[in-house]
Amino acid sequence: MTFYKFVVGVALALAMIAVLAMSALVFSARDFQWGLQQLSPRTGGMISFAELEQANTLIDEIEAAASGPVGEQRDLRNQLDQLEGQIQSATRAADELRAEMVGLIATIERDANVQAAASAAANTSVQALSQRVSALAARRDLSPADQQRVAQLQSQAQQLAEHEEAIDELDAQQAQLTARQRLVDGQVTEANRRVLALQANVVPESDQYARVRGEAEALRSMSPLGVSAALAQGHPALLSTLLVLLMGSLGALLYLFPAYLNRAIPVTIAEIVVRIIFGMCAALAFYVLANAAIAGFSIASAVQQATSSSSLNPFTVSLVGIVAGVMSEDIAKWIQDRSRGIFQQGGGAPAAGAPASAETPPGGGLVNNQAIS
Asked: Do 63 and 189 share a domain, yes or no?
């Protein structure tokens, strides 16, 4: 190996490392924008990291201030659930005791031939039942068994009064806790409303805010010197174009490495420079033609679909750039042939037997490797 070939190899390796590093940074930024476009189409693939950081700070402050009401809201909910259970249990016990008293009173009145008024029989309040029990206790013609039942009824009436008093106290506690819960719910709701407003200011689809926040923090933490995060602030069209150019140069280097190792004619530094630039130009031209063709089909179709740079998949864009970089000569020749066919439509055909220009090399000079080798 000659010293010049060694220098060329070092230059080729350094060029590959530089292109790979820049491609990784641009690709990570563009991939973040594409993912953001999928999560929140209304962002167009762009958010402000400064606004996101400011929103995160304010949201953390609001959540810290609302932690007290949120905890109290949880405690109030538990207390109300417990009170509701106690009220239901006390009400069920009072209803059972009331039903037992009504049946026992009816039995004693029937045995004593007492005709209770219909309104009195229908009234099952503590006061009404106590009055009926007192009326029975005042009678002297009751049998000893009925007198024992009346004594039992008097005790039950007192118990029923205690049950209803306990229920009233529980109802009062429940009303107080409910009023407090409404106040705390209002505080929590206001805090949530402010948080949602801050989230929607950065990400219109606020339900995706946590996902976007995590992706942004991951990009910023893993970005060398914050380069990828800074690139992600750029317009998707610019990043897609840069990605195509870098992938075109990567494709050119992928072409040059086997040539450096296997080709009989040695690769020169001038060829490396020219091939990289040529690969970038071919990739950009092919990228523009591909998008123009897609736009043309969209216009010709009955249903037009709106597309933008933010909706372009970075993997597809990278593939276009790499293929164009590797096949830059063939693509340039293909573009030249297509262009010649377009501009010669309707023109006069060359005369029969007219010799072709000997000065024009095959491919119009675009594929003349000897010029740079």
From this structure: yes
Same domain, 289 and 178: no
Is residue 229 within 8 Å of residue 33, measured between CB atoms? no
C-alpha–C-alpha distance, residues 113 and 263, integer Å: 127
| 174/243 same-domain check | no
311 pLDDT above the threshold of 80 = no
Domain that includes residue 63, residue range: 54-202
Here the tokens at position 296 are: 């043309």
pLDDT at 307 over 80: no
Task: Report the domain count for the chain.
Answer: 2
Burial of 17 (0-12, 13-18, 19+ CB in 10 A): exposed
pLDDT digits (tens, 9 = 90+) for 201-227: 999 988 899 999 999 999 988 888 889
Residues 6+ apart with CB under 8 A from 170: 83, 86, 87, 90
CB 179 within 8 A of CB 13: no
The residues, any chain, with a CB within 8 Å of residue 363's CB and separated by 6 or more, are 329, 332, 333, 336
For the entire predicted model, the pTM comes to: 0.68
Contact 23, 253 (CB under 8 A): no
